[in-house]
Amino acid sequence: MADGVTEQGISIQAAADRTGLSPHTLRYYERIGLINEVRRGSDGRRRYDTSDLAWLGFLTKLRTTGMPIKDMVRYVELVREGDSTAGARREMLEAHRVRVVQHIAALQQDLKVLDRKIDNYARIEACETTTTGPRRPTDFGDRARLHGDVTGVRTG
Amino acid sequence: MADGVTEQGISIQAAADRTGLSPHTLRYYERIGLINEVRRGSDGRRRYDTSDLAWLGFLTKLRTTGMPIKDMVRYVELVREGDSTAGARREMLEAHRVRVVQHIAALQQDLKVLDRKIDNYARIEACETTTTGPRRPTDFGDRARLHGDVTGVRTG
DNA sequence: ATTTGACTTAGAGTGCACTCGAAGTCGCAA
DNA sequence: TTGCGACTTCGAGTGCACTCTAAGTCAAAT
Fold this sequence. Notes:
DNA-binding
């Protein structure tokens, strides 16, 4: 089976393909306790099942939303400690949720600045293509100091 | 003037306070060419003016939206090369813009997963507080393997 | 006069999250 | 039977973006 799929589970390479993580990273996650020891086949190699993949999927969401590995490890420890930690886990996720929401809001603000800057470039290009005759010395700024880059953003 | 503000510009500490960057980072940015050499006062110390701060503000937007330092340096090089590179700069910013938009979209998707997970915790807590008598063995999953964490996310 | 504290430099160190190298094992195909 | 490629372990290495150290200068306050 060249695709690494058997009824006992799938190979590390196949799991890597499905999760978007590398085999190196999958072993690393296991080493630091983010996932439990993965079941091994008769050959001693890792066999990932669907619940391994589901858990990895969730971990990946935490990572891509910016949760540090340390916090993820803490969360997993709480899971292992059992139902009594459910409240603490919820609190962790809610605090994380707030950070993600704030991050999105910040990105949206920054995007506006980026858009203004791009707009400025577009305006300048339009100006240059419609203007004939000698280019007048640009008043777009003092390049020597990077100040007032052609699309310079004003503070405030 | 203890606040580091004079008519020739403000001290590195004052600039740090205003940009949210540390004095170390301000020197670092200068060293790697993200900002031009900052004007010095008669005592040889850096004096940041408003255009320095405006430029730093823009750089910070690029950073917080995830542009790698290397790309920022490249962008700054283009600015220094003059008007002829305006097109290339616009392309850089537009490509970056696309990445930011995609990143925001991904975060919003991930946020949904997070919300579902938090919702699940809330549901479980509601269940526990309304249920009297012995807790029935949870069918929330096999804690020993981290599979189906109480709030386990199903793939698909 | 001396102490304090903010600054200066070049270069080294840190923390994070991987990522890889080396050496060895295994099953299978030619 | 001799490779091949995918796996195994452990520990070391990488790249990024800072972040700090050490040794020195300087101005103002005590």
